[in-house]
Amino acid sequence: MAVDPTAPYDSENIFAKILRGEIPCNKVYEDDHAFAFHDINPQADVHILVIPKGAYVSWDDFSEKASDAEIAGFVRAVGTVARDNGLVVRGYRLLGNVGRNGGQEVPHMHVHLFGGGPLGPMLAR
Ligand code: AMP
Question: What is the pTM of this model?
Fold first, then answer.
């Protein structure tokens, strides 16, 4: 179901459960502000999700309410995950879905990191 990016944070969402260790994941990275794991339904050879540890529904919520330290930590973590997974030389794609038009399904802010091969057109037509 599409996420309402203006709704209050639901602490029972699946990524919140992953952060609390209640649901397993294939973890690739963790620091004070961010957590990253492989997507359960990969759309590319490499498909990693990077999420902030804070309770933010979407990019909109995160960009408005997160502290400078959380935002800087998250951006640094995305870059670190890309480098650590060998994605930089051949290139990669970052994607953030927000709300219904964006196709966001999980109401915890996340970015998708795709790589491992040519990724095709930016958007499906
Ligand atoms: P979005 O449409 O941007 O909200 O993307 C949500 C992503 O979360 C999808 O690509 C799902 O495959 C992925 N996903 C959902 N549940 C899990 C899970 N338990 N572990 C890893 N990835 C998940």
Answer: 0.97
CATH architecture of 14-115: 2-Layer Sandwich (3.30)
Q: Residue 52 in contact with residue 76, Cβ under 8 Å?
A: no
Distance CA 75, CA 104 (A): 20
For residue 41, what pLDDT is reported?
Answer: 98
Q: How far is the CA of 38 from the centre of ligand 1 (A)?
A: 9
* Cβ–ligand 1 contact at 22 (below 6 Å): no
Q: What is the distance in A from the centroid of ligand 1 to the CA of 106?
A: 7
pLDDT digits (tens, 9 = 90+) for 51-80: 999 999 999 999 999 999 999 999 999 999
